[in-house]
Hints:
By secondary structure, the protein is of the alpha/beta class. The chain has 9 helices and 25 strands.
Amino acid sequence: IRSIREKDPNGNITVISRERHSAYGRPLISYLLGGLITEKRMAYIPEEFYEQNSINLLLNSEVVAVDAKKRTVKLAAGDNLKYDRLLIATGGDPFVPPIEGLSGKEKVFTFTTWDDAAKLKAIAHDIDHAVVLGGGLIGLKAAEGLHLLGKRVTIIELADRILSAAFDRPAGKIVAKKMKANGIDVITEDTVVKIEGDGASISGVVLKSGDFIPCDTVIVAIGVRPAAGFLKGSGIEVNRGVVVDDRMETSAKDVYAAGDVAEARDFFSDQKNPMPIWPDAYIQGDIAGASMAGAQKEYTGGLAMNSIEFFKVSTISMGITNPAVPAEYEVLTYQDIETYQYRKIVIKNNRLVGAVLVGNVERAGIFSGLIREGVDVTQFREQLLAPDFGFIHLPKDLRNSLFAPVGKAA
């Protein structure tokens, strides 16, 4: 919307959302669940944003079909709305696998939206022990939120470590250590195969290993899939996500996609992949808005990046952190498990291509800048692992070219 309004201050813009809330900070839902923040803190933008930008906002209105030839979207209520330009920014839907005994159970939840957190909070007084299925970012934040309410929590993760998709083994172990230190049980290399209980109630879960975990609540947090099911029959190309070019335009003229639902070019491989991360969604939305308004902006490719905090231990991963062919890369590491500190630097052809930071992440922006600009790090490679690595360690000419404000020297 901001990008469109920079070029087109007067055109009609309608926003349709199946949620009951306007834009909010999704990473905050665990803090809302845990009582660290109130609902007033959830808003991502001021209440007056939509009015100031002349937006027709339709909340609690789900789009169930798109006709790219007729240029219409169909709402669940039956209405058909016409468009000149269409942006698909529907995000991701949680994936719930088939599990024996799951059907009909009341206290089975997913954890990706404000309403998910609100539902959990509303029945918190009836929760004693919750099992969280999935040790990724969503699962760990759900576990943290429930722990803040004083609930017993057990995380079950199929991989050999938590955070396996975004972080490497040492980083996962450090976060698991912090979880366990706060009383959260973590079980790896196992999964839930059956939910037991009478009627709608849950008495526990059976694991693939045969172990039984008594519990009364199950949170399914395996991951999300691009929310593109409503596009079936639309004529818009959908692979794993909605396929877009570097202007964020889909296979259908004047139809664009951005964020978790989009399948866009990867920064390193040039292959198209869904990239369900917030910084990328922001960049893609800006480019899509510019393209819809007739401006020229192009996507330079998605850079995998995850940043999250667990029990006051900050973590960030970016770029290539688990090389498929390790021999082609140089990997530098530093760790102090007792103080929850870890740093991993991945270099290829003297260029920084990936980094994992745990505990000290204040200067992460410098690392992402070095990756995106393809900077030769030979001159300062020995300082990259230092806990105090920062702006001062870069050669002056590099500081001036990459990080100085326009017209000023660093």
